[in-house]
Amino acid sequence: MTWPLFTEWFLPGVWITVQVTLGSAALALLVSFVIGIARSSRLWIVRFAAGCYFEVFRGTSALVFMLWMAFAFPLMFGWVFVPMAAGVVALGLTYGAYGSEIVRGALQSVPAAQREAGIALSFTRAQRLRRIELPQAWPEMVPPFNNLLIELLKGTALVSVISVADMTFAANLSRLASNESAPAYTLLLVAYFVLAFVLTRGMRLVERRAKAGVGQRPEPRRGLRAARKTNPKADAQSAGGVG
Amino acid sequence: MSSDTPNPAETPQDKPRTPEGKPDVPEALAHVNPRVDGSELIRFDRVTKRFGDHVVLDDLEFTVASGKHVTLIGPSGSGKTTILRLLMTLLKPDEGTITVGGRYLTHEERNGKLVPAGEKHIREVRKNIGMVFQQFNLFPNMRVLRNITEAPVHVLGLSKEEAEERARELLELVGLTEHVDKYPTQLSGGQQQRVAIARALAMRPQVLLLDEVTSALDPELVAGVLDVLRDIAHTTDITMLCVTHEMNFARDISDDVLMFNEGRVIESGSPEKMFNDPDHPRTREFLSAVL
Questions:
Q1: Which residues of A touch B89 (CB under 8 A)?
Q2: What pLDDT is stored for residue B19 in this prediction?
Q3: What's the CA gap between B12 and A213, in Å, rounded?
Q4: Which ranges of A156-231 would DSSP assign to H, the alpha helix?
């Protein structure tokens, strides 16, 4: 990969990848909660509609859906998406369907006794969901959400197919321009790994905070830095856990 | 623990429970259950509850007068807990009606007909009832103070300050003032149960349901919880329905004891009568097994 290709295409491509990831993650999170909660609704029609959404998006390819959004949707409805928007919407809706399963499962794992305690205090259904069930389900959701987020990051490579200039697009361009595949794709692999690693670290923080929020002691640090921590004062502090 | 509570050994049942004659009412309880006239508060009218083919409650009839402390005893599976869960609307009766304070709990009248109650009606009647569970069921995502204030603020519409003041008074009553800012997981079972009692009382219910509240506790923690409940029983006129295996406690606080067997009340009476000289052979058999 030549230097101009790197600075003019690859680096901006990294930024595009980050943007697509964050944008579709935000959409997917929203969809996850809406569909996930709807799937545990007591009204069968709501459950049914949400179940249909889940089945449809689980059963269709994100790539094909993206192509459909970019090329078929404009023909059918006369409305053209900016390519990046088409990519974000396609990824967000698809991964949101998977995320809804995480939300539904986590809500189900909240003990029935908590629902009963909520009823005994005369909370409405909405209040129970918002104040009791969702906050308790949230720490359960974070680790699977992390997996899904990493999947989503890697899935963003699909947007290169609808000519969004993300880092995969830049690597392809570089291969075509220089006829050298190895450096471009190696760099690309490393770039995805680094981004995924950063996301995982960030989600680890989210998880620790989520657990502290329900009074659970976060797991002790096990990374390289933990071994260095010989200062007993620091240990005592971390053992204090939730403040 | 609440070592500063009045000595429960001093013949508590003899104390009159009229407002004038009450031993010093802790501030936190001053508002509990203001109207007590001995009139009927709870009525089970031909209530049947089945789980599949198993009949848990069989055409059950009984009433509880306001201000009374009633203990339900009987072998496990005799339907005691089911009664509390029906009153808390965690279960619905298959047949029959339940009224609380003259209002139907599970039904409402529309155009002169009795129809299953809507969510709103149930919530309205249910506000008069509080429950303490065997497993405490505190909200692990809230600190102690918020566990107590959450419902008064969001259900009763109290201001946050008002609810917190009420909560602190109740925490003082149950002897846990120093734990306001802890999460439930940081408390012992006995402490959690005392928070749960405070949480139920913060709603100022007319009726307090106690469902085997000490069964899940380590033996050394039971006394602290029972002391708090004795305190509440002896200083307030809150109506209590209590399912317990602590027969001494039942003897202490009860006005009436109902003996259940196979979904029916087979005998009822004052604790003196029930524990010392029961009529029904099944009651004798049961009591000799547990006492």
A1: 119
A2: 45
A3: 43
A4: 167-178, 181-212, 224-228
A237 part of a folded domain: no
Given a cut of 70, whether residue A53 has pLDDT beyond it is: yes
| Token pair recorded at residue A205 | 């923080």
Phi-psi region of A241 (alpha: psi -120 to 50; beta: other; left: phi over 0): left
- Are residues B235 and B26 in contact, defined by beta-carbon separation less than 8 angstroms? yes
pLDDT over 70 at A194, yes or no: yes
Is the residue at A239 inside a domain? no
Is the pLDDT confidence value at A138 over 70?
A: yes
Contact B123 A124 (CB under 8 A): yes
Mean pLDDT for B202-215 is 93
Q: Per-residue pLDDT tens for B107-159?
A: 888 888 888 888 888 888 898 999 999 999 999 999 999 999 999 999 999 99
Residue A129 DSSP symbol: I
- Choose from A121, A127, A131, A133 for mutation: most chain B CBs within 10 A: A121
CATH number, domain with residue A76: 1.10.3720.10
Q: How many domains does chain A have?
A: 1
Task: Give the global pTM.
Answer: 0.81
The verdict on A113 touching B (C-beta cutoff 8 Å) is yes
Token readout for A198 is: 């950063």
Residue-by-residue DSSP string for B224-289: HHHHHHHHHHHH---EEEEE-S-HHHHHHH-SEEEEEETTEEEEEE-HHHHHHS-SSHHHHHHHHH
Would you say residue A13 lies in a domain? yes
Spatial separation of the C-alpha atoms in residues A195 and B38, rounded to whole Å: 71
The residue assigned the tokens 């269709």 is: A60
Does A52 contact B at CB distance below 8 Å? no
A163 has pLDDT over 80: yes
Residue A123 CA to residue A138 CA, distance in Å, equals 20
- Asked, for residue A138, whether it belongs to a domain, the answer is yes
